[in-house]
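Posting for a labmate who doesn't have an account.
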Amino acid sequence: MPRGRGRRRRQDPVVGGRELRIRRAPMEQQQPPVRNERRRPQVEVDEDAPVVRRRRVDEPQLVALQPDVELQENEPQLAALAKNDIWIIGSSLVKKASEHTQTRATGIDLGLEKLGYSIVWIGHSGMLWDMVPSIITALLNWRPPPSIILIHCGGNDLCNIQNGKLLYNIKDTLRQLMSSLPNTTVIWSYILPRRIWRNAMNKKAIERSRARVNRGVRSYLHKVGGKAIKHTDFDDIHPTLFADDGVHLSYIGNDIFINAIQSALELFIKYPNRFLYPDEL
């Protein structure tokens, strides 16, 4: 290693305020999770396991498998509860939103426990889109499929990949996800604008790419039965909505972001035929 350069520490996804490190164990070795007092999932840590690995050409990108184990006697309702799980998966914006929910009266479940739902937050700083399938596969290895999967990811890819290729990758992952989990509702959360796009040569070009990707994913999900959240309150990129780094959200920005997610989830749960939040006039 060159002098003066330290090894970069890997950051792992956070599930309900806890780090998630993906474990590559065979299915027959999987053990059911033990819930804590708040019914938040626990994940066994494997120090040698990589967070993500590149797949072979002939390897499926998303594997929806269930652990071949019996429920513990003291957890007879685990499978039933998981049917009303909502997984919110995404980048550091999701991680920080999860932390921000602890300051709100509605709590980590956004008040949706009144409708019988429980939210699992999976936030990973620096998350790229090609990490999404591996994270979902890891979750499915120890927990039944959720009722809803909401994905907020892709912003960190915009400066590193052509928007056409990114759009193709997103649509391909969503196609596999909806095919593997036909009873799970898939929601796309629009990529937010930023005041600062790191490593971007042309900020306006990146914003145009962001808009094209959002429109493309929304159009695709409308055809195949998914749903979308637009986050229109961020369209003017107002400085008060963003933290000093121009990427993450301020306190009020997090409030608005979470409000949109909460309102959208309530809408889609109560009215399953609705596709878009907020509705267009």
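Reply:
Got it, the structure tokens are right above this. Confidence is low (pLDDT under 50) at residues 1-10, 17-81.
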